[in-house]
Amino acid sequence: MRLRNAANEIVAANERDCLKVSAEVRAGRISQAFFDRLQTNQEGVADMATKVRAAAKLPDPLGQTLSVTSLASDLNTAQKLLVLPG
């Protein structure tokens, strides 16, 4: 499902989450600053969608060589980006 198409559902879920978290803020277990960042609206969802599209256009860094070092013994070492199995 596309973010923009699900904006109403996302905002409604966010409102439900914020209602639950507001009690934690009042009790001092969660900061007001964190709570403020948690809240979103239609504009926030549109902004998220724009940022996801921008990130999707970035080149895939996996396998990219970051640096190569030549050692005195004619041995080269390379620093590469890769995923380690978890």
Short précis:
By secondary structure, this protein is an alpha+beta fold. The chain has helices spanning 7-26, 32-38, 42-56; strands at residues 65-70, 76-80. Strands 1-2 form a two-stranded antiparallel ribbon.
Reconstruct the topology from this structure.
Layout (H helix, E strand, L loop, with lengths): L6 H20 L5 H7 L3 H15 L8 E6 L5 E5 L6
Antiparallel strand pairs: 1-2
- For this structure, the quaternary state is single chain
Radius of gyration: 22 Å
Spell out the helices and strands N to C. Answer: HHHEE
Looking at the structure, what is the overall shape? Answer: elongated
Beta strand %: 5-15%
Count the DSSP helices: 3
Q: Major sheet: size, sense and barrel closure?
A: 2 strands, antiparallel
How does the helix and strand content classify structurally?
alpha+beta
> Going across the major beta sheet, what is the strand order?
1-2
Span of the ends, CA to CA: 28 Å
Fraction of residues in H or I helices: 40-55%
Runs with pLDDT <50, length 5+? none
- The number of strands is 2
- Average predicted confidence as pLDDT: 92
Task: Describe the protein in words.
With 86 residues, this protein is an alpha+beta fold. It has a domain of 53 residues. Helix content is 49%, strand content 13%. A two-stranded antiparallel sheet has the order 1-2. The chain is elongated. The mean pLDDT is 92.
